[in-house]
Amino acid sequence: MAGTSENGKITRQMLKTRSGEFDLESIHTIIVKKEGIDDLGCIGECTSLQMLDASYNEISNVRPLSTLKQLTHLNLSANMISSLDPLKELENLKSLNIAGNLIGSTDALRCLQDLDDLESLRLNNQVKDLTNPICHSTLYKQTVLGILPRLKTLDGERVIGPGSELFRLCQELDVVIQSNSPRDGPVKEYQIPRPLLSDDFWNDKSTDDRAMIEAEKQIQDVLAECRKLSLKADEAADQAAEMLRQNTQDRELNQTD
């Protein structure tokens, strides 16, 4: 059938049919999703390619992509990739999705360190149940951000900017609700950690900064209210238990009499 891969290999005819372009050098976007592809073939001849979706295939070798200097968005999710080394040549890459592959360690990501424009990386997609062996470690995100500190989003979560601050606040709210129970002792004063930013990152007079301060204040108010509600709930539970104990004693006394 026209436009399909040939024995799992990308062909010129396939690329021309999918893009509607006669010359491979003129192609800007290619979607070859769920095509049973295990060989990227002549994809490297599409030197003007900016967006490529080759997800849900059987690709293990990404070497043919190394010539795509104009590529900005690359989706290779749900493949069989364990090495990303050829991607270090993609100097304009901004977004990379490799969820659902065989990336086994953070060392496999070090080849991406010199990609100054890379701001979005996805290794794990819980919604689609796509992950990598590297994601089995609970600390993998911190390690990845240590290697690629310029990332703005990791696994779909904001890690830089006002959006990331609010996301952290919501995460911390979950932690407080789960772990700051008065039954474990006095209610602990909880300080929400601020991200490590350069001194000039925030403009004190900026709208974003004011909005972020207000957002933090609102979250702190919610935390305080949660602590109050938790205390009241515990007090009500204690009173109910005491009443039950007293009623039990009264019944026992009556039976004795």
UniProtKB/TrEMBL annotation:
The keyword Electron transport is annotated on this UniProt entry: no
Coiled-coil zones: 212-246
Listed InterPro entries: Leu-rich_rpt, Leu-rich_rpt_4, LRR_dom_sf
UniProt keywords, alphabetically: Coiled coil, Leucine-rich repeat, Repeat
SUPFAM superfamilies: L domain-like (SSF52058)
Protein name: Leucine-rich repeat-containing protein 61-like
Statement: the UniProt record of this protein carries the keyword Manganese: no
